[in-house]
């Protein structure tokens, strides 16, 4: 029992600002705060800017590591200079503070794609190495959350280095990785946790889990999806408008496009988000498009998340955050799509 | 509302049995509170799910070109569609612009009482956990986790519905609902007037501020029935009009291009605004063109088949006060 | 801004305004050298995208000129154009672009003097306004190029808009 408590510590709420400011001195901290673009991850300059009573913020945490538009290199033919992105590095490392466990799990999927495999993506990897993820367990999931159905949970630890749970008047802090332990070392504001704290956490988590009302069952899905030409594909896409909302908001969607932009003899190579829902995504130079209609594009999105990801990474590339459900202009609900596929003969 | 719903269902059943239509596009209740979602009915579906209520916000005309085109090749196919005033104007627009033939659609027109803005109601409720919704003629009663609240329907309409002049479809095959003309008297947009009165710098600043939110998901374009181009200028590569980045300059380029492309065609259905996940107030800019077209050319799009769209015709005495004369 | 010389793109129709500019030239009429002429078949060919692309790529103002109404080589091209121009002008002004930045006029093949006068007026107008900065896309030389480094750029917008 003692051993288990080793990774836990307690932070009293009145000490939070002190704790946070200590971290601010050593790291660049990014956390949820209000902005023009809705609640999202922003740079935090004081503990007061931080907003920790959110349910989940609008844009997922992926845009921090995988920005919508990222300059990879820039060139100026007149001087012969080609400048690579990785040349400018900030001395301070980053902390991503207070993202939800689902977003942290999604980052672990990004790691599988961009960092852990070969070839490794240097732009992503560099940012990932510099940063520590501190996630915040969910106490009150939204009606659109279905993380329990896809192998995530309100207190899922995968992808996070440290996980915080808001208890009554204090935070329970658990360091999950070596990186997390390293950061929390020598912090005087922390006191050891007791078994009562853990008990309180377990009760809160059980209550939060009971708030997840989704009854989606994805175990049987893979077999259904192996049938590429199944008849249900004819109907599930019908109301899709073909916009990029679901993919842009998705914390696990990672498809991108690369473009060279030239202006007045100088230029840059950029990487931008792309979406399998756009016809241009697969359009060949010849004019042929292997995914010519909404049906094929919708099929691709579902298969990539629920089938190909299982084959390639043994994971489901959906964390159940519900952003695609909240933001879809026609209320095309992924839970319902899964249900329809499962019910199809 | 119950009676209208069953009236629609009976009509659809009749249309299917007479083989007048092969698909019907209507609404069903959505998975989110206070939302509906488009519903594609095929002949053998039971119509239990079909819904008509004050939350039927989507403009279904956007689906017509692709549904009609898909069924073509063999015999011509008819699609039935439920149309509010604005939706029917979109259908007329599509027919006028030769994206459809009148014979391909069976329009069930419905007198629209104004659609309720879900976001307006949800913003007044702290909790997203909605348990029960009830309504009477005047109010929507929402019961949520920590309490309940009444919302007057009249005060929670979409902005485009507040300014709507044509709640009753002009073009339809059958009309459901009493054909009483709209009680709306505020047909010009207050917001547009207020915006025009601001200084140039302020206007540009607001324009920029709104568009800073844009993430270029193209939901506004894809939700718009008028945006049926096979290849949008935003995605053209020969010529490549502007870059794919999320630089404000490129975002502005896209929106100027798209909004102006709607000049004289936009029916002010508000589909783009509702589709936007970032709440960009696009209507502030599209509506100005609607008003300008009406004032200058006396044209309201989508009311009939005869009148030529304003930019496809001209008059020899069109106003030209904007022409630069050497001083 | 006394030293500022604006860059102006002039879209001239092939049949009247381009010939008008030519006449101004052969008649040796003096006018400012700020315009860069792009010949189009007809003023009806003008698309708003041409105008905003030019503005985005570094031009300070636009002049569009066609045949006088009634004189179009294609009978009615400029009459269609007139309707479009009216809306363009109103719309660009509405969103906050100075109306003097984008100007429309008619110049016939015989009006060399008028062409010179119009160019003079447009150039003066735009010179007074100064460079158009708020919509332009920058050069990407290595100083201005904004790598979307997380620490440099908290909003993750690699904005290249020059404010």
UniProtKB/TrEMBL annotation, chain A:
**Which InterPro entries does this entry report, sorted A to Z?**
4Fe4S_Fe-S-bd, 4Fe4S_Fe_S_CS, Helical_ferredxn
Q: Out of the domains of life, which is the source?
A: Bacteria
UniProt keyword annotation of Secreted present: no
By its UniProt entry, which SUPFAM superfamilies does this protein fall under?
A: alpha-helical ferredoxin
Return one GO MF term.
metal ion binding
Concerning Pfam families, the annotation shows: Fer4_22
Entry protein name: 4Fe-4S ferredoxin-type domain-containing protein
TrEMBL record, chain B:
Keyword terms? Iron, Iron-sulfur, Metal-binding
Name the record gives this protein: 4Fe-4S ferredoxin-type domain-containing protein
Q: Which residues cross the membrane?
A: none
GO molecular function annotation? iron-sulfur cluster binding; metal ion binding
Q: Which PROSITE patterns match?
A: 4FE4S_FER_1 (PS00198), 4FE4S_FER_2 (PS51379)
A Pfam family per the record: Fer4
Source organism per entry reads candidate division WOR-3 bacterium RBG_13_43_14
UniProt domain 4Fe-4S ferredoxin-type: residue ranges: 257-287
Q: Which InterPro entries match?
A: 4Fe4S_Fe-S-bd (IPR017896), 4Fe4S_Fe_S_CS (IPR017900)
Give yes or no: UniProt keyword Zinc-finger.
no
The organism sits in which domain of life? Bacteria
Lineage, uppermost ranks: Bacteria, Bacteria division WOR-3
- Region forming the signal peptide: none
- Coiled-coil ranges from the UniProt annotation: none
């Amino acid at each position: 029992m003692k051993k288990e408590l080793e990774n836990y510590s307690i932070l009293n709420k009145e000490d939070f600002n002190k704790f946070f400011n200590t971290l601010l001195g050593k790291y660049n901290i990014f956390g949820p705060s209000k902005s023009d673009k809705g609640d999202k991850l922003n740079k935090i300059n004081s503990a007061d800017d931080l907003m920790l009573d959110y349910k989940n913020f609008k844009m997922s945490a992926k845009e921090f590591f995988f920005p919508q538009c990222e300059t990879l290199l820039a060139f100026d033919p007149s001087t012969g200079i080609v400048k690579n992105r990785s040349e400018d590095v900030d001395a301070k490392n980053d902390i991503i503070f207070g993202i939800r466990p689902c977003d942290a799990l999604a980052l672990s999927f990004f790691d599988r794609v961009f960092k852990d495999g070969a070839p490794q993506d240097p732009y992503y990897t560099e940012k990932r190495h510099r940063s520590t993820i501190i996630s915040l367990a969910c106490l009150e999931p939204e009606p659109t959350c279905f993380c329990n159905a896809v192998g995530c949970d309100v207190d899922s630890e995968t992808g996070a280095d440290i996980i915080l749970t808001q208890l009554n008047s204090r935070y329970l802090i658990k360091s999950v990785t070596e990186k997390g332990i390293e950061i929390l070392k020598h912090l005087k504001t922390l006191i050891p946790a007791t078994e009562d704290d853990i008990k309180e956490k377990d009760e809160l988590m059980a209550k939060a889990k009971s708030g997840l009302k989704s009854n989606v069952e994805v175990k049987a899905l893979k077999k259904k999806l192996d049938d590429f030409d199944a008849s249900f594909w004819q109907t599930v896409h019908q109301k899709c408008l073909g916009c990029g909302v679901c993919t842009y908001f998705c914390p696990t969607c990672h498809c991108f496009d690369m473009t060279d932009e030239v202006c007045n003899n100088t230029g840059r190579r950029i990487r931008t988000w792309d979406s399998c829902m756009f016809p241009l995504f697969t359009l060949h130079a010849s004019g042929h498009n292997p995914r010519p209609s909404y049906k094929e594009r919708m099929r691709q999105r579902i298969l990539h998340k629920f089938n190909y990801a299982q084959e390639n990474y043994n994971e489901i590339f959906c964390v159940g955050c519900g952003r695609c459900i909240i933001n879809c202009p026609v209320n095309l609900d992924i839970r319902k799509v899964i249900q329809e596929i499962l019910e199809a003969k | 509302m119950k009676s209208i719903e069953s009236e629609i269902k009976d009509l659809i059943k009749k249309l299917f049995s007479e083989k007048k239509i092969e698909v019907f596009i209507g609404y069903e209740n959505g998975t989110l509170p206070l939302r509906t979602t488009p519903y594609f009915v095929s002949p053998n579906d039971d119509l239990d799910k079909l819904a008509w209520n004050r939350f039927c916000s989507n403009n279904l005309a956007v689906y017509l070109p692709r549904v009609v085109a898909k069924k073509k090749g063999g015999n011509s196919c008819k699609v039935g569609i439920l149309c509010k005033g604005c939706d029917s104007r979109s259908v007329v627009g599509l027919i006028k612009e030769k994206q459809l033939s009148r014979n391909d659609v069976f329009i069930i027109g419905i007198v629209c009482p104004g659609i309720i803005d879900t976001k307006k109601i949800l913003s007044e409720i702290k909790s997203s956990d909605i348990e029960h919704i009830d309504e009477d003629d005047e109010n929507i009663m929402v019961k949520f986790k920590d309490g309940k609240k009444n919302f007057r329907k009249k005060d929670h309409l979409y902005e485009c519905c507040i300014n709507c002049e044509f709640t009753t479809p002009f073009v339809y095959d059958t009309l459901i609902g009493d054909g009483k003309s709209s009680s709306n008297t505020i047909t010009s947009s207050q917001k547009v007037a207020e915006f025009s009165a601001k200084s140039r710098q302020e206007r540009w600043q607001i324009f920029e501020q709104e568009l800073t939110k844009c993430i270029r998901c193209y939901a506004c374009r894809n939700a718009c029935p008028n945006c049926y181009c096979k290849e949008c200028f935003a995605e053209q590569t020969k010529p490549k009009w502007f870059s794919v980045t999320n630089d404000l300059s490129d975002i502005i380029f896209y929106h100027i291009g798209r909004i102006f492309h709607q000049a004289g065609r936009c029916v002010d259905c508000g589909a783009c605004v509702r589709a936007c996940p970032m709440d960009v107030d696009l209507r502030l800019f599209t509506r100005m063109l609607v008003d300008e077209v009406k004032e200058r050319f006396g044209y309201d799009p989508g009311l009939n088949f005869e009148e030529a769209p304003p930019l496809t015709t001209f008059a020899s005495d069109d106003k030209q006060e904007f022409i630069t004369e050497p001083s | 801004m006394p030293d500022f010389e604006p860059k102006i793109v002039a879209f001239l129709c092939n049949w009247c305004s381009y010939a008008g500019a030519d006449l101004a030239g052969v008649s040796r009429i003096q006018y400012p050298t700020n315009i860069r002429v792009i010949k189009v078949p007809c003023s009806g060919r003008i698309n708003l995208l041409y105008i905003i692309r030019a503005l985005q790529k570094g031009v300070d103002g636009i002049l569009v000129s066609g045949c006088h109404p009634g004189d179009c080589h294609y009978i009615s091209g400029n009459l269609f154009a007139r309707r479009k121009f009216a809306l363009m002008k109103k719309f660009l002004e509405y969103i906050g672009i100075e109306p003097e930045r984008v100007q429309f006029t008619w110049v016939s093949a015989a009006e060399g003097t008028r062409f010179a006068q119009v160019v003079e007026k447009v150039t003066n107008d735009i010179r007074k306004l100064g460079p158009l900065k708020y919509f332009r896309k920058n050069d990407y030389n290595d100083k201005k190029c904004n790598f979307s480094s997380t620490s440099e750029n908290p909003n993750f917008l690699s904005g290249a808009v020059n404010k």
